[in-house]
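Lecture notes, continued. The same structure-token format from the folding unit now serves as the input rather than the output. Read the line below as a description of shape only.
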């Protein structure tokens, strides 16, 4: 499994509901931003990939809402990622406020053509990760 990627998030008014608590769907936005940062930091140009007819798509999210974040909270998103198969890219993501875990998700993304057919992860991405956790 890869090293843990750390992504900070500040909770803004727009992220919350009328009680100043983070709206549940916004955790998915937060973890998406962290995954986007990982791809960028790996040097993967998603615009060039799309021009070549290859994109990523999330196919599954297993989410656990453990606590609540509030307006003004500073959160940390911890992400580990690995290739599950030549097509699947897995992300184990945890959102913390300080040391308190408030959200966890296991996200499956696949590599596919712009026509919607599965295709292999690009070689440069596969070269940057291990194929299974613990290897």
């Amino acid at each position: 499994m890869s090293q843990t990627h750390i992504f900070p998030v500040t909770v803004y008014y727009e992220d919350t509901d009328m009680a100043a608590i983070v709206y549940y769907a916004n955790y998915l936005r937060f973890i998406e931003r962290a995954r986007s940062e990982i791809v960028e930091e790996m040097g993967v140009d998603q615009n060039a990939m799309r021009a070549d007819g290859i994109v990523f798509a999330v196919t599954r999210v297993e989410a656990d809402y453990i606590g609540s974040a509030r307006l003004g909270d500073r959160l940390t998103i911890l992400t580990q990622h690995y290739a599950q198969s030549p097509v699947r890219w897995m992300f184990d993501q945890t959102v913390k406020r300080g040391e308190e875990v408030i959200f966890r998700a296991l996200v499956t993304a696949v590599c596919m053509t712009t026509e919607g057919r599965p295709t292999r992860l690009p070689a440069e991405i596969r070269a940057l990760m291990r194929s299974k956790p613990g290897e």
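Point for the exam: The radius of gyration is 16 Å.
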